[in-house]
Amino acid sequence: MGAVKRKHVMLLVACLQNFCCGGLLFGWAAITSMLTADISEGGAGLSRDYVHSIFVLGSSLNLLSPLVLGIVLDSAGPRVCSALSLLLVGAGTLLFGQSKPGFEMFVPGMALVAVGGPGVQSAIIHISNLFPTKKATATSIITGSFSLSFVVFLAFDLVWSRFRLSYSQIFTGYTAIVVVCLLLTLALMPDKPYTLKDELRKEIIEEPELSQKYAGKTVEDFEFSKLRLPSVWKKSANLERLPSVALFGRSNSPSASAAGLPAPPMKSRRGLKEESLQTQLSSGAFVRVTLLLMVASFWANFYIGTIGTQLGDQAYLLPDVQLSCLRIFTAITTGGVLGIPIVGAMMDSVGFPATCVMTLLLALVWSVAIMLQTKVALLVAFAAYSLFRTFLFTYFFGYLGDALGFRFFGITSGVSFAMAGLVGLIQYPLSDWGTGDCHLVDKPGCDHGNWDMVAYAQTATLALLLALPLFELYKQRQQPTQPAKTLYSDSPIVSRKLLAKLSEQYEGTEKTPLYDSGINPVRAYAANA
To answer: Where are the bilayer-spanning segments (predicted)?
Structure first.
């Protein structure tokens, strides 16, 4: 039970940190009224243009920071990266809270919060390896806590409006919560990321009966599980079940069992986890998932920034209804976290290609629905958008960690987000081209803009992305194979020393987890070493 308690505590702490500090910036709209309110009302007395400029700078730094903090993660480990990220967030909330006329630190304060947030999440993704058979679900829970952090600033606004606390008191007081997260990181976070192989070994040492559960399994059974290749497609793929002594010397081959010897190891495709950074960055898996992130996140963020203008220019709803729809959109988007168990279960059960297809189908439902220009269709679009955004980022982290591992995870994810951030700059000219003037002057003959053409382009590009999961499936079926990691490999899940220890512990028992069809795995290992 020690291992069970440890991994659940670590997951809880990781989610707490991600919720409190990971995505604060994206709840920015909720505190706009507080920041623009007069100082006598507890506000900051800032202009709307100034408030907007703070967010623009923060959002840009937020996309670029994963690359820098990713280098820290890969070189110094998760404890240092997490502590540094939380320190940046805490310093940012403190500076922001202490800002006032004559000491205006609003911009650097929120910049620190924006820079530190992504590092908080990147430093805890590896905790999913504590759950070998539910790795994607654990990843979804972690990334979901990031989405939930959007409501923190909404809570700030509620405290300000109902309890009449000033923005300074709220931000300064919140620094204490960040400090608590920092202390938890220093006390619990490991210096090196958890690895799947090490966690399997620990489980077996603490609970030897698991040796029977894992009999016949290899590293690839966990690393290249249903996450990468759904069971419904495995039958026609090159990946086959291991017919040889694998984790504990169990033989699935009748002829091998009869001879008392393991069958020859199967062939299996080699993963990218042990390859160099250059090889990972030039791999097809990285290119495909980065392309998906660049295009899909571009349209997702573009809609957040222009939804008010789009509804105003299209003018198929009354102004009051438009305002209500914007509030509904914010609430539904936050509620997208409810889709996290769904996407996690999909990645665990039907695999990445099918999950990617579902993600893009949700995006297409959203894109087509906004073109229909009716209130009912708009609500459907909001729901589809909410799930699409949740699926997208959960899928990205789950796929990247599973395909490339965590050896260079900080850098690879950082490069992906940096490229998405650069592509995001196209939002400015595209928004200018699409914008009309009906959102400013609601009268006959006003310019409705080019939002219909923007929607057509959005739908077309999202539809083209469907080629990515189809190509992924094709590559999986054509992937060259090589011997899998087994008991006799250079890096087995269960070492000879561990096998000897467990064999000695169960020697003489009638039902030992280490015996199968009378084969002693320790002697089998020695005979084939």
So the answer is: 9-31, 51-73, 80-99, 105-127, 139-160, 166-188, 285-304, 324-343, 350-370, 376-397, 404-426, 453-471
